[in-house]
Amino acid sequence: MNDLKRSLSKKFLTIIPIILAAALFVFSLTIGRYPIGSYDVLRVLISPFFPSLSMDIPDVAKQLILRVRLPRILGALLVGASMGGTGTALQAIFKNPLVDSNILGVTSGAGFGAAIALLLQSSPWQVQLSAFIFGLTAVLLAFLGSRLYKSTPLLVLTLMGILVGSLFSSLTSLLKYIADPLDTLPAITFWLLGSLTSLTWSNLIILSGMTLLGTFFLWLIRWRLNVLSLGDDEAKTLGINPIQMKLWIIVVTTLMTASAVSVSGVIGWVGLVIPHAGRLLVGPDHKYLMPASIGLGAVFLILIDDIARTLLPGEIPLGVLTGLIGVPLLMVLLRRNRPGW
Amino acid sequence: MKKYRIRIVMSLVIMILLLVACQSVDTDQPSTTEIARTLQSTTELPPSTPIVETEISARFTISAELSLQSAITALYQAYFPGEAPVFVETNADLAVFTRDTNNGERPEIFPTFLENAIVINQTDSQNAAAFINFAISPEGQKVLIEAGELASTLTLRDQAGNQVQLNQPIERVISSYGPATAFIYSVNAEDRLVSASYLGARDPFGAEVMGKIDPRFPDIMGEEFFTQEDFNIEQAASLDPDLIITSARSTWLETASQLELSLFLFDAENPERLQEAVQLTGKIFGPNPSAYADAWVSYYNAVSSQIEEQTATLSEEQRPRVLFTGTEPLRVASGDMYQTDMINIAGGVSVSEALSGYWNDINLEQVVVWDPDVIIVPPYGGASVEAITESPEWQILDAVKERRVYQMPKLVAPWDTPAPDSVLGIVWLAERLHPDLVDLDCSEEADYFYNTFYQYAIPAVEIARICEFE
Question: Is the ipTM of this complex over 0.90?
């Protein structure tokens, strides 16, 4: 009876972040530098179905909501969810609470890819493509590198990820050094700090496809993460091929992270902090932790992005805000919350 | 044990060999100093000694104010050794007199050998023309310094507030700051450059035109050695410069000051500082460059006041609201930047005036709040009008719907940077913002400007290319 109660409340707690994300999503549509009343926003949202309802709203406001705010907030939601989910999954399979999506160098690789495209003054979609491809390349390199060494593959993979990450960071620094300080350098710096400014409906397609499929996959395998985090031998005993499973998770999280990073730029800390926040809320059981982390990631990034786009006339880089808010948050969580990891 | 010792000795030997090899590679090549020297000697004026003619009567006659005759005599005797100038009252080949050279809206600049003292060739005398070139050259400056007509050292306060002592004449200059290079060209002192960073000479068109403006451009282009971020000490030492001109924001100033290099710093992010910078550049190089600098300042002021007069009837609300974007559509110029001053002079209002710092990243929503009448795109960094006009999101703005998005032109230096060319940027902007009020024509002004300040006979095709407006 007690167990049922606990599991019910856990289910409830798990749903909270998701409900919160949905509510915040709608609320965020009403805030912005351009003042639009919340009732007007709602009318605009349903205007595709009931055009007569929003006749009196100026065209600018409608366009702003449908073409600028909606894709951007949707993007924040997807990127946040993706980072929360991948962070949780990677922390589970690496059995390390200090892991985030960049563990295999995907972010550094994507940063390099974007920097090189920005240096060559490519169009925005070329920048995204280049970031995506180099993100995958980095992980592939780390993976191939780990094959050089036979034993304890996961440890070597981690090491290789760090090495490849540093390699791409150095290459990015080299590009920044070469870049013209008047035009390409600020563009590269801004990209490396992360921003959702460039999100439009057209580049949301890949992101949403990857994120939805990936998140669904992570949600499906959430209980296996519990098994994997016990250790390889235990997983084998319970009928799971740990190597194969981990490989799948790495492939999926890499694709998700690369597609997220390629539109948003480098946003640190979300993938690291959110799983801890999730553990504080629902405990270490991945059955609940995974959906909670996904929801919390979305909430966190929508909030951060709201601040980034409304606080000042100038856009504040997301990487700055996630760091400023994420680091103290992690400290508090690690201090006050000592659940089993 | 022995094995290891041998290895260590071997590796030491190899290292020494490598070092020696490096050294010999260095000495095999002709040093860059030599190259620079030969280059310079080919561009130098006719040598002063070999002109030997039996005829003793003067090569040309000179009419000169009494106070200037001693200076002219010194120059003449230095250029034609053993000869004396013949001064006449009227019908002289050469007229020498004092005059303010910087008057008028579009001043004509005459060869100036002392402050306000100009020398004009009134006939076709070849000798007289060569003499004028000598009089305004660094060699002529030396003669005038020896004769006590010009000061041998000059102390100027640079824009970082340092007192810089300059031994005249300054003959070998490194410019590691693109705008400063443009200052040097516009005061007609580009022959003193031994290495320079350029503004806007990276793209093929800019490089091509720069090569036509100055045939030495490919040789003195020194961007791989000298920029605001980077300063190659070895290369600088090998060039043996009298002076290094750079931005006050250069990152290597600390290093350079420890090496006691002679530095002159510029920090010109607004019109007043820009005018001061150009005038300082003139003063560094002597009377003739100074005349060019003064002429440029008076031209700049003439353009500004003409626009001010012709738009005086407009109230603050009637002035067009301008958004000046950067290399990306959502990057805008702050109020601290020169672009904002240009917009104000051209009779507009910058919507992003309240922002501070350098380029600011913003979001589209903020642009909608500002609702600009006109959007200006810069001519560098891959920025394009299409990036804005073809974006579905930007169609929200009236300025985009009504196609009032324009790209600032450039010849070599972009017209929106704090360089002398920016006066044309102001003309061009005023023409776009107030087609009915302001009576200035980009083509005419570009023709005057490049002919006068860059001594570049700009072809009509290039004028059409930069000033064309659909």
Answer: no
Q: For B77, phi and psi rounded to 5 degrees?
A: -70, -30
What single-letter amino acid sits at A68? V
Nearest to residue A310, comparing CAs of B128, B304, B365? B365
Numbered residues of chain B with Cβ closer than 8 Å to any chain A Cβ: 202, 227-229, 326-328, 330-331, 352, 354-355, 358-366, 368-369, 380-383, 391-393, 395-396
User: Are the beta carbons of A184 and B381 separated by less than 8 Å?
Assistant: yes
Same domain, A173 and A57: no
Q: What is the pTM of this model?
A: 0.77
**Same domain assignment for residues A132 and A272:** yes
Query: How does pLDDT run across B308-330, given as a tens digit for each residue?
Result: 999 988 888 899 999 999 888 88
Name the pairing type of β-strands B193-196 and B173-175: parallel
Q: At what angle do helices A106-119 and A184-193 cross, to 10 degrees?
A: 160
Does B331 sit within 8 Å of A187, measured CB to CB?
yes
**What does chain A come to in residues?**
341
Domains of chain B: residue spans and CATH: 61-146 (no CATH), 153-285+294-298 (3.40.50.1980), 312-467 (3.40.50.1980)
Dihedral of the CA atoms A323, B249, B205, B194 (nearest 10)?
A: -140
Read off the pLDDT of residues B392-422 as tens digits, 9 standing for 90 and up.
888 889 999 999 999 999 899 999 999 999 9
Count residue pairs from A and B with Cβ separation < 8 A.
89
A184 domain residue, yes or no: yes
C-alpha distance from A171 to closest chain B C-alpha (Å): 18
Query: CA A124 to CA A23: how far, in whole Å?
Result: 31
